[in-house]
Design goal:
binds zinc ion; 5 domains; six-stranded parallel beta sheet; single chain; Rossmann fold; Arc Repressor Mutant, subunit A; about 25% strand; alpha/beta; about 750 residues
Length: about 750
């Protein structure tokens, strides 16, 4: 039922029918033509509703119609939304992302049209507040009802949909509470534009280095043309303070600012700090927002009413009317790579967006991605360096604990030296953090009788024991089941044993060693939502806890003045598997973790427990020799012609029928583009050969730097017939090799 038909007819007389092409947020390669009804005068970028078969779809006017379809068969545009059109630069961005990532343009548009409801002017909302009266005694109180009442106890009235979303229940629960008289409905007029950040408020007095850095950024913003700037400074050197000056300059020029953070939901401290600096919070954009907040924010951005958006990678696709600056904080963070749907790297797309818009982009990091560092070294990016921690705070000392020599007792994980350091830290009344990037109690459960290992039926993965929740979980597909009493293989009872530690197990060891210490776990599955994270961070900062045991949730830019000791339980963890960036990522993560220590007045100490103290990553961390590590890493990549000195692109072939997947992957292997310079490796089973019930094979294309890999891949895919039951994903510049 395509509106655009293959058969072409001679163009009708000019002026008879006006037509426009409309891109739809569907898996389509091109826009479709529609007839413009009399009295409507759409311009490119206008949001319109059009028929498609029996449905009506919201799309964006992309340009003039192509005339390929007979005028008589054209369907009319149904309506045009009264909103500023999607800016030209955003439309070019959608096309650019589609072409670069080899995603259908319609699917990229879908990311840019993620909140169709925002196209309608806001209507009064039906919201609920808590009834003033005490609940009658005979009302049934379920956990879901309780959560909703709790939410409303310390929050504003909200719609049934938002309440249901936040309380993770159905809207019927909200309605039930209203019927029982516990909630009162109320009609709320649409929110007025929120308070605007004040760019004239003075920031702190900057140090000489910071001042020079801020001047450079201000000049880049005022020049209002493309520039990519690496803001390279150790943790605590004032990078945030410096880019705030760039933000102030952009606001003074009357333009919008986009700040990307790797995990915005975990960034409460950043938001508070911004609000203190500018007198009002920024608009947030991430997946934890309620439906109402998403609609209000999207619309306000489109109307140019939002000066600053801080968001996750999807914020790149907001319809900024006049964007003047993009900041990518912690630019090296792998959370910027989106791995499903359209596969893209938000840092790279931010640079492209800045280039298309003719505005500066700031990439901030204490441990830049090797890609970024090489770009700065070669002069493609400007570089601003902040060499020292603010206020004379010194970087922590990093010490390696060789686990082959300084061994923890059997089935315990903290080495004697780390235990002594913990004891001393607690005696001084200071705080310690133990880092282990593994949720749950134990990563593997095996039967001591028959050796059977408990694995996920849907994935190539072990089931992880979560003792607090009394569950076995798959961290890939979310499968969750009770821990069995007997071995599912041999039926023996009491034979299942936990192998290896997760944070819960470390917490158990800590409780045993330091029964009087106030300890807590900080991991994404022990803290529900941004509020819980914020509360935990508040407790740590207020020194209500002595020892925190955490995953990488805790590694992100938090500032804990009393934290003086960091112990990394398994520094080697990220090196296993050994993909292209294993060493780089491990270095970056451990450096960031180490950077949590000694941010206040007291110096910090970091212990890395490792079986490989001679590994270049460990040596560089211990010596504080970041640039030495980068130089070595760059040399190895250069020798292997690997990124950033060569290019990679991956095809991931997946499907439920293993033999069909295999046959398709083999066919792709035979049809692969090969030349003197281009090589294709595979097909090979992916390390995650089974994921959510789908079998997976990978092919990897390797080409010299500067090769346009997209046309090669496009030609390649055309040579092979892909069955409908098989999916082929293209990952240009892959970061994950799973
Ligand atoms: P980074 O982003 O490089 O980790 P921050 O900007 O977070 O560094 O600065 C680290 C700490 O030092 C923060 O608490 C910040 O408020 C403080 N700080 C940095 N520069 C200054 C300054 N010029 N005056 C006062 N405090 C500063
Ligand atoms: Zn699974
Ligand atoms: Zn068994």
């Amino acid at each position: 039922m395509n509106a655009r038909l293959a058969s072409s007819t001679p163009a009708e007389p000019a002026g008879a029918v006006r037509r426009v092409s409309v891109l739809l947020p569907l898996p389509l390669r091109e826009p479709y033509d529609y007839r413009v009804p009399p009295g409507m005068d759409p311009v490119p970028g206008d949001y319109v509703e059009v028929p498609l078969g029996p449905r009506r779809i919201i799309g964006v006017v992309w340009g003039d119609g192509t005339g390929a379809v007979d005028a008589a068969r054209l369907k009319p545009v149904v309506r045009r939304f009264d909103l500023p059109p999607m800016p030209e630069v955003e439309r070019r961005f959608v096309e650019w992302v589609a072409a670069y990532t080899m995603t259908l343009p319609g699917m990229v548009l879908k990311m840019a049209l993620s909140v169709p409801a925002a196209l309608e002017p806001p209507r009064p909302l039906l919201v609920y507040r808590r009834a003033a009266a005490e609940p009658p005694a005979d009302v049934r109180m379920t956990p879901a009802r309780r959560r909703i009442l709790d939410l409303l106890a310390d929050g504003p009235p909200r719609t049934a949909g938002d309440l249901a979303q936040e309380a993770a229940c159905g809207v019927s629960v909200v309605r039930g509470l209203a019927e029982a008289g516990l909630l009162e409905p109320e009609l709320q007029t649409p929110a007025r534009a929120p308070a605007r950040p004040d760019c004239h408020r003075p920031g702190p007095a900057l140090s000489a280095d910071q001042g020079a850095a801020a001047d450079t950024l201000r000049a880049a913003v005022e020049a209002h043309r493309y520039a990519a700037v690496l803001l390279d400074g150790v943790t605590g050197s004032g990078k945030t303070e410096v880019y705030y000056e760039g933000i102030a300059a952009c606001l003074k020029a009357g333009r919008q600012v986009l700040v990307l953070l790797p995990e915005i939901a975990l960034s409460a401290q950043w938001l508070d700090r911004f609000a203190r600096r500018f007198g009002a919070p920024p608009a947030e954009w991430h997946s934890d927002l309620t439906g109402t907040a998403r609609r209000d924010t999207w619309r306000a951005v489109a109307l140019g009413e939002v000066p600053v958006v801080v968001g996750a990678r999807s914020a790149l696709f907001l319809p900024f009317r006049d964007l003047g600056l993009i900041v990518v904080d912690e630019e090296h963070d792998s959370a910027y790579k989106q791995e499903d749907g359209a596969i893209y790297h938000a840092r790279d797309m931010a640079v492209a967006r800045a280039h298309l818009g003719g505005v500066p982009v700031v990439l901030a990091s204490a441990t830049p991605a090797l890609e970024t560092k090489v770009n700065a070294d070669s002069g493609r990016y400007a570089r601003i360096v902040l060499p020292a921690r603010h206020g004379g705070a010194v970087l922590p000392d990093v010490k390696l604990i060789d686990l082959r020599v300084d061994r923890p007792p059997p089935r315990q994980w903290l080495a004697p030296e780390l235990r002594r350091a913990l004891t001393d830290t607690l005696a001084e009344g200071e705080q310690a953090m133990l880092f282990l990037n593994r949720r749950g109690y134990a990563p593997l459960t095996l039967c001591r009788t028959c050796g059977h290992r408990l694995r996920c039926p849907n994935c190539t993965a072990w089931l992880v024991e979560h003792r607090l929740a009394r569950k076995l979980q798959c961290h890939h597909c979310g499968l969750s089941q009770p821990l069995p009493d007997t071995c599912p293989e041999c039926g023996d009872s009491g034979s299942l044993a936990a192998c290896g530690p997760g944070v819960e197990r470390i917490a158990e060891e800590v409780a045993h060693l330091f029964p009087d210490a106030r300890a807590a776990i900080m991991a994404s599955d022990t803290l529900f939502g941004p509020r819980a994270v914020q509360e935990m961070i508040g407790r740590i900062a207020a020194h209500e806890l002595d020892i925190v045991i955490g995953t990488q949730v805790m590694a992100k830019g938090h500032h804990f003045p009393m934290l003086t000791l960091v112990g990394v339980v398994d520094a080697d963890l990220g090196l296993a598997g050994g993909d292209l960036r294993a060493a780089e990522r491990t270095y970056q993560l451990l450096h960031q973790v180490a950077g949590r220590a000694g941010r206040g007045e007291r110096p910090g100490m970091v212990y890395l427990q490792t079986y490989m103290p001679e590994h270049p990553v460990m040596q560089a961390l211990a010596a504080g020799d970041r640039d030495g590590f980068y130089a070595l890493e760059a040399e190895m990549r250069l020798e292997a012609a690997m990124p950033p000195f060569g290019r990679l692109a991956a095809l991931i072939v997946s499907g439920e029928d293993e033999s069909l997947v295999d046959r398709t992957a083999m066919a792709l292997g035979r049809a692969a583009p090969r030349s003197d310079t281009v090589a294709v490796l595979g097909p090979a089973p992916a390390p995650l050969a089974l994921l959510r019930g789908r079998h997976r094979r990978r092919l990897l294309l390797k080409a010299p730097r500067g090769t346009a890999v997209q046309p090669l891949i496009a030609g390649w895919l055309e040579r092979v017939e892909i069955p409908n039951a098989v999916r082929v994903q293209v990952d240009v510049d892959p970061y994950s090799f799973l």
